[in-house]
């Protein structure tokens, strides 16, 4: 049985006052679904120090443990600050920082070595969908971004169509179901049925309180990776509630 997961990606948003918002999410995080918030790196330690019944994650990590990499953060540092998860391969990282599947794979290995679970993001652009290449793109990203050694504990896969992120556009439930079923089948083939069935699959892209329940009813959707609507407790609480 896969535990549902409501994951929030705060991106480059959040000064220390945002910890009040996090504290307001705390009580709802004690339900059936697991709750994960990935604040900016500056807030990982203070967020974890609140001791709320929710997990804290980073939004990226370097592939190396330590060294001359100005501005980067290692998986070990995130772990040391209290994180238990890290988002990897988000489309904004792939686009803004020229991250490719092989980088994501190396980062994923580093995250696992440090004891973090990885939320690995995959998703097609609008032109790739319009060219009917969605499943090929997803297959390539999964094959390239995931190292050997995945388990239901160390890996979560987030399907995030690039064209749905921050746009208010959402694929229809058949499209979401098609991709999630496809990802599940690929994971079973690569890692074996037991592991493939235990990895949680999240949908991400313009999830809001008003569409969450419909999306969560789709087969193989085990929760959501939420950007904008995870910043405020008033928006995120009903999404968590829809999973409970
Ligand atoms: C995201 O950035 O991971 C995301 C899904 O953003 P939004 O929910 O704002 O579309």
TrEMBL record:
<dbReference type="GO" id="GO:0046166">
    <property type="term" value="P:glyceraldehyde-3-phosphate biosynthetic process"/>
</dbReference>
<keyword id="KW-0413">Isomerase</keyword>
<keyword id="KW-0324">Glycolysis</keyword>
<comment type="pathway">
    <text>Carbohydrate biosynthesis; gluconeogenesis.</text>
</comment>
<dbReference type="InterPro" id="IPR022896">
    <property type="entry name" value="TrioseP_Isoase_bac/euk"/>
</dbReference>
<feature type="active site" description="Electrophile">
    <location>
        <position position="90"/>
    </location>
</feature>
<feature type="binding site">
    <location>
        <begin position="227"/>
        <end position="228"/>
    </location>
    <ligand>
        <name>substrate</name>
    </ligand>
</feature>
<feature type="binding site">
    <location>
        <position position="166"/>
    </location>
    <ligand>
        <name>substrate</name>
    </ligand>
</feature>
<feature type="active site" description="Proton acceptor">
    <location>
        <position position="160"/>
    </location>
</feature>
<dbReference type="GO" id="GO:0006096">
    <property type="term" value="P:glycolytic process"/>
</dbReference>
<dbReference type="InterPro" id="IPR035990">
    <property type="entry name" value="TIM_sf"/>
</dbReference>
<dbReference type="GO" id="GO:0006094">
    <property type="term" value="P:gluconeogenesis"/>
</dbReference>
<keyword id="KW-0312">Gluconeogenesis</keyword>
<comment type="similarity">
    <text>Belongs to the triosephosphate isomerase family.</text>
</comment>
<comment type="subunit">
    <text>Homodimer.</text>
</comment>
<dbReference type="GO" id="GO:0004807">
    <property type="term" value="F:triose-phosphate isomerase activity"/>
</dbReference>
<feature type="binding site">
    <location>
        <begin position="9"/>
        <end position="11"/>
    </location>
    <ligand>
        <name>substrate</name>
    </ligand>
</feature>
<keyword id="KW-0963">Cytoplasm</keyword>
<protein>
    <recommendedName>
        <fullName>Triosephosphate isomerase</fullName>
        <ecNumber>5.3.1.1</ecNumber>
    </recommendedName>
</protein>
<comment type="function">
    <text>Involved in the gluconeogenesis. Catalyzes stereospecifically the conversion of dihydroxyacetone phosphate (DHAP) to D-glyceraldehyde-3-phosphate (G3P).</text>
</comment>
<dbReference type="Pfam" id="PF00121">
    <property type="entry name" value="TIM"/>
</dbReference>
<dbReference type="GO" id="GO:0019563">
    <property type="term" value="P:glycerol catabolic process"/>
</dbReference>
<comment type="pathway">
    <text>Carbohydrate degradation; glycolysis; D-glyceraldehyde 3-phosphate from glycerone phosphate: step 1/1.</text>
</comment>
<dbReference type="InterPro" id="IPR000652">
    <property type="entry name" value="Triosephosphate_isomerase"/>
</dbReference>
<dbReference type="GO" id="GO:0005829">
    <property type="term" value="C:cytosol"/>
</dbReference>
<dbReference type="InterPro" id="IPR013785">
    <property type="entry name" value="Aldolase_TIM"/>
</dbReference>
<dbReference type="InterPro" id="IPR020861">
    <property type="entry name" value="Triosephosphate_isomerase_AS"/>
</dbReference>
<feature type="binding site">
    <location>
        <position position="206"/>
    </location>
    <ligand>
        <name>substrate</name>
    </ligand>
</feature>
């Amino acid at each position: 049985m896969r535990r549902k997961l409501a994951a929030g990606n705060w991106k480059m948003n959040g000064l220390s006052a945002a910890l009040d918002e996090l504290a307001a999410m705390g009580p709802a995080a004690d339900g059936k679904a697991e709750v994960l918030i990935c604040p900016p790196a500056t807030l990982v330690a203070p967020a974890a120090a609140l001791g709320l019944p929710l997990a804290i994650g980073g939004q990226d990590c370097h592939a190396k443990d330590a060294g001359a990499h100005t501005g980067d953060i290692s998986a070990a540092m995130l772990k040391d600050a209290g994180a238990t998860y890290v988002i990897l391969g988000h489309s904004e990282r792939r686009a803004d920082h020229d991250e490719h599947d092989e980088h994501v794979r190396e980062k994923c290995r580093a995250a696992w070595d440090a004891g973090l679970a990885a939320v690995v993001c995959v998703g097609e652009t609008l032109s790739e969908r319009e060219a009917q290449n969605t499943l090929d793109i997803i297959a390539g990203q999964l094959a390239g971004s995931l190292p050997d050694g995945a388990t239901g504990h160390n890996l979560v896969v987030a399907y995030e169509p690039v064209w749905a992120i921050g746009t208010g556009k959402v694929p229809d439930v058949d499209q979401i179901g098609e991709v999630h079923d496809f990802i599940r089948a690929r994971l079973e083939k690569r890692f074996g049925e037991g592991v493939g069935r235990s990895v949680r699959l999240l949908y991400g892209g313009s999830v809001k309180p008003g569409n969450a329940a419909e999306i969560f009813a789709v087969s193989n959707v085990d929760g959501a990776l939420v950007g904008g609507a995870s910043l405020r407790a008033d928006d995120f609480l009903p999404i968590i509630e829809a999973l409970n």
